[in-house]
Amino acid sequence: MSTLQASFELPPTLSAPRTARVVLGELLNAWAVDSGVVEDAAMLVHEVVANVVDHAGSDVALEVDVVAADAWVRVGVADGSSIRPVVRELDPNASRGRGMQIVASLAHRWGSEERDGGKRVWFDLERGPRGT
Predict the structure, then answer these.
(1) Per-residue pLDDT for 132 more than 70?
(2) Which of 18, 130, 127, 3 is nearest to 64 (CA)?
(3) Which of 30, 49, 52, 63 is deepest in the core (most CB within 10 A)?
(4) Each residue of 68-121: pLDDT tens digit?
């Protein structure tokens, strides 16, 4: 298999997390990525894009990029905010704040990096059956 790449831009609106989840899911399905990886990627991109909408504001550009190779899928979300994500300690009384915990627990690896005055948050998922 060759490496497949794509990217798409979204406005940072309340509908952006759902739109990112749907578009990424359709793209990965078209690339014949295993359904478990598609589900995990869709959930994680939803969380990362929701963080952008919640914390970066409406003045930032939002771009999702995806690369699929034989053994892994990498998804990145770039925005114009320099505020980096953090994994918060779980607060069972909080109604929110679990997004990066979900990313950290499901992704094989994840991180953030500077990009054009803002940041790019990325995560990797291994392809193939879970637990291998």
Answers:
(1) no
(2) 18
(3) 52
(4) 999 999 999 999 888 787 666 766 666 565 678 889 999 999 999 998 888 999
| One-letter identity of residue 56 | A
* Residues 6 or more apart whose Cβ sits within 8 Å of residue 128: 34, 71
Residue 57 reports pLDDT greater than 60: yes
Q: Provide the β-strand partners of residue 76.
A: 65, 122
Amino acid at 27: L
CB atoms within 10 A of CB 66: 22
Measuring CA to CA, which residue among 40, 59, 35, 62 is closest to residue 50? 62
Handedness of CA 35, 102, 18, 96 (dihedral sign): positive
Q: What is the pTM of this model?
A: 0.88
CA distance 60 to 10: 10
Per-residue burial over 68-96, b if 16 or more Cβ lie within 10 Å, else e, is beeeebbbbbbbbbeeebeeeeeeeeeee
Q: How confident is the model at residue 1 (pLDDT cuts 50, 70, 90)?
A: low
